């Protein structure tokens, strides 16, 4: 064996075995031991082998001890078969150096230290398991060394954690939810009816908890302020769940991200001097005929090809053990391949990975050297813990070194969302990312896979990094996010964009902002340039919906106060519904600019059929999202009514996204039927309505 090969073996770090593999190994050990015990005389089965471990587990002590003895062997079997998906052995530390015109030079290198040391990949050698004691069944004579990688010894009263009870394995909250009867409120709202029969979203993914926006009284709170953000992760995540036969948690359904997933044909400004402009319409609310929907649509400036800025992109790729699934690292590689193909020859790509330690896989390389970039991507494999913080630090250093005047500089983090080593304090990460953002390097986040997704952390990283958070559940979604919307997601034309609407209490008695709960701002934040907000990319569209209650409509949810007095300075009902203000900064600016426009009564339409396809389709998506998450509002519409509204507003739909949405409605109806009075479910109504329409034609 050569010295180089020995060095590779020395630096080899085996991936951490998954909990599923441990359980399989444990079960195999138990079955093998029980089979051997059955061959022995019954007299040998003394009181010791009948002693139970833990409350309600029913696991014989001898079986558990044998499992502990054989568990390391099962873990080794798993590790030995999970090194590389392509069957090749893991590689050692690599430093890949390249020039603008030459392919990358791959060489084995030891880690160097010191202030002038080059950046190299450092894969720490895994520590061997440590013996912590002997275990022996006094009747059977079976003995062996119990090993663990933890410092503390394994005690017998800790063995319940190895074979958890069903409520421990699934989570007591999940079992409680599955067994709980539907609440009266949920059934009445058309939301989570027959909850005990609904396949709920699998556990493991983490979402920010938030309360739905409430209805506000205009005379008491006339001003609404929020940050414009154009993330779409919620929609693609929910779509993947529905296609797999699961309903999402309410917090996974963020209404603004559902609505903004789709492109809308709003008019764009003609010059970068006005980076975006607003288009407004007021239409009857499809789920409440006594209220109206105010739609505010924003379209970003679309720069011509001659104004395109060079792009310096740093791919920060999670290669930890949890990424070793088909819909994670393999999909990630193919997705980044699409992005590389869409770049211009003089754009640059760098690749940084993290798994136990951070490593530079590819120094800044021109996009015209596609073969070197793709080869570096193909060499990646999953294994080890997740040192996300060190990976971020290294990626930012690489991006800073690749910066050029007038260029787009962005780190693109691709992960399943788990940062379990390093700086995992959200506040510390936010502060660090804000510092890098202020120096001109922005951060976008791509999420992959399920069961380990920390959506809350991903949203926080993207928002603080002046970037977007997207979820890639299939190759088609990668095409949409990285190619079709590449300019909008990578090229920022306006940052810290804030929206403030003041409603006229003489026209609007109540209002409710649909979605944007996690983007809410205080009223005073609007004029404070130190407060961060969302970004708008080149050509991107952003949509916001308010449900408003006209004065005298009878749809008010709040009773009038006995001792209230009317505002003295109300604007005449004949003039304005409200007033729109928008603040933004240039991508490299620190001082905000203001755009103002009145919301006139002439924007109001008497019939929803008079509205354009964009307005009607956005209303259908809002209705769907509210019904899917069991909202307190909008539940009166059936799945069939929502599908009819969406079907009639598909418009051009060149890419088929709106047609796909209609199919999502049908999946939701199958999983959570409406159960009409005639006994038919929502899915039956959808299919029957289609058949009836066909026969009528």
Structural overview:
There is one protein chain. This protein is α+β, with helices and mostly antiparallel strands and 697 residues long. Among the domains are: 3-166, no CATH class; 305-490, von Willebrand factor, type A domain (Rossmann fold). 31% of the residues lie in helices and 21% in strands. It contains 20 helices and 20 strands. A six-stranded mixed sheet has the order 11-10-9-12-13-14, sandwiched between helices. A five-stranded antiparallel sheet has the order 5-16-18-8-7. Strands 6, 15, 17, 19 and 20 form a five-stranded antiparallel sheet that branches. β19 (576-585) and β20 form a beta hairpin. α13 (426-438) packs parallel to α14 (455-464) and α18 packs antiparallel against α19. The longest helix has 20 residues, at 19-38. The protein is globular, with a radius of gyration of 29 Å. Residues 41-196 and 689-697 have low confidence and may be disordered.
